[in-house]
Amino acid sequence: MITAEAANEFEQKLRAHPELNNMSLEHRAAFTARTKWLYTASKHQVPPSGDWWDIWLLLAGRGAGKTRCAAEWTWAHAWYAKEPIRLLVSAPTSGDVRDVCFEGDSGLLSVCPSEIIENYNKSQHEITLKNGSIIKGIPASEPERFRGPQFHGGWLDELAAWHYLDDAWAMLQFGMRLGSHPQIICTTTPKPKPLIMDLVERDGDDVAYTMATTYDNIHNLAPTFQKQILQYEGTSLGRQEIYAEIIDPEESGIVKRNWFKLWDADKPLPQFQYVIQSYDCATSDKTKNDPTACVVLGIFKPSPDKPMSAMLIDCWTEHMQYPELRPRVIEESTSIYGDEDEFGHGKKVDLILIEDKSAGISLIKDLQRAGLNVRAYNPGMADKMQRLNIVSSLIERGLVYLPESQTTPGAARSWCEPFISQICAFPEVRHDDLVDALTQALRILRDMGFLTLDYLYNDTDKYVDDLQPRRVNPYAV
User: Fold this and answer.
1) Which residue has the higher pLDDT, 468 or 190?
2) CA distances from 86 to 121, 172, 179, 355 (A)
3) Backbone phi, psi, residue 464, to 5°
4) What three-state secondary structure class fits 23?
5) Do residues 288 and 319 touch, judged by C-beta distance below 8 A?
């Protein structure tokens, strides 16, 4: 920690620096501000050494000083460039760009020396420096606005809170095309978003990953703030908001991994009584982002004393639209599943379930005309969270099985892993197509009576009266 006395002493020495007298007013102000900042900054606020990184990812707890760090880096990067450059500043909303990144207490206008600012256009979210460099703000809430502008680098604030994270990230990357080496600083309190985890995994490659906690800057925070945020110490929220820990999304998921039952790898697949193929078709105008998903469930009875259950016997996702999807569904409909019966036959597909939306609308009509047993599914007003909550109790009761791996005892087969991860991490997932395909299949199977929550064991050798204590009239004794 740098004390106030030490900072004042350093500033006095800095003013007496002999080189300052030979500098212009603008360069003197920039040199003084930058040198003082690097002297007082915490370790996590100092830029990574070297020029090898493309992205500086700073994951920090609340109040750790990430906004100040990024603002200091941004103006200095723009001012000390060899030639005028354009830098992007983006945040979740337009208000965040203005109120936090530009006009906030730790924003650009607060930390950038006024002597080097030529103009600030508030309506356009744009700062022009006297060396010709421009710092332009664009909200991430409008990803299409990243089309057209081009930059030498930039600052992306609260990246994990962007509503259209993947779309906005993809669009702005196309704009990072000026200069020989565009660099971006990303500051955010972490959330288990797929993009955030992808960037962390790239640490040491093209990403410089820095992590800081609230305690790293606790001496600069108001006592009331310390009291309020530190009450979450020891909680999952505290791990995320104080310690900047990326919480495993499965920890807060609706469905838990251990709810799924495993079908012993040493046992052959059972004889299925009913097989359903459930499809979630991609949205017609987003062929690059949304895959089509298929989940196949087989209904069987694990043992005479257990209720009817469902086993995942196939699942896949693939980016395809209606023209390619139609022959794929027809081909899948001829599949045979499960162990052979006494006649040497496996189980054919009994029902093809397709959500009645987007490409599924035309597909349903086409397949019905082809003579396949296709049923349209309409989830009604229920959103995706409600749909999973409705059927999650079936999984919790152990009515959904996964085939056990033949090489890793106690784990499902490797092809099941994308399915398990998406179901258990929902809603913190990039795509939820397998979730939709599963929930509609389980909902239909429950409505059809194949899967029930309250199972009554039927023993025809016993009567209800035999299981109850015999009543005695005390007055008749």
Assistant:
1) 190
2) 15, 13, 10, 46
3) -60, -40
4) coil
5) yes
CA distance 287 to 417: 24
Q: pTM of the full predicted structure?
A: 0.74
Count CB-CB contacts under 10 A for residue 291. Answer: 17
Phi/psi of residue 189, nearest 5 degrees: -80, 125
Amino acid making up residue 20:
L
d(CA 435, CA 458): 33
Residue showing tokens 């500098």 = 23
The Cα 136–Cα 90 span in angstroms is 8
Q: Judge whether 152 and 72 are in contact, CB under 8 Å.
A: no
Distances in whole angstroms, Cα of residue 275 to Cα of each of 9, 165, 349, 388: 78, 37, 5, 21
Question: Could you give the CA distance from residue 375 to residue 355 in angstroms, rounded to a whole number?
Answer: 9
At 377 the three-state DSSP class reads strand
Residue reference for tokens 């258990």: 424
In 92-215, alpha helices (H): 94-96, 108-111, 165-175, 194-201
Q: Which two tokens stand for residue 349?
A: 């597909």
**How many angstroms separate the Cα of 49 from the Cα of each of 34, 43, 52, 219?**
16, 12, 8, 26
Q: Cβ neighbours of residue 51 under 8 Å, at least 6 residues apart?
A: 181
- pLDDT, one tens digit per residue, over 20-44 is 667 788 988 898 899 889 888 999 9
- Residue indicated by tokens 């009875």: 301
Residue 92 near residue 162, CB atoms below 8 Å: yes
Confidence of residue 185 (pLDDT cuts 50, 70, 90): very high
Phi-psi region of 338 (alpha: psi -120 to 50; beta: other; left: phi over 0): left
pLDDT at 474 over 80: no
Kindly state the tokens that stand for 477: 């004794």
d(CA 436, CA 285): 18
Q: Among candidates 66, 64, 92, 67, which has minimal Cα distance to 242?
A: 64
Confidence of residue 363 (pLDDT cuts 50, 70, 90): confident
Q: How many residues does the chain have?
A: 477
What is the rounded distance in angstroms from the CA atom of residue 192 to the CA atom of residue 247? 6
H helical segments located in 16-119? 25-40, 66-79, 94-96, 108-111
Average pLDDT, the chain: 88
What's the pLDDT at 234?
A: 80
Looking at residue 404, its pLDDT comes to 94
| The one-letter amino acid at 195 | L
pLDDT tens, position by position, 55-79: 999 999 998 999 999 999 999 999 9
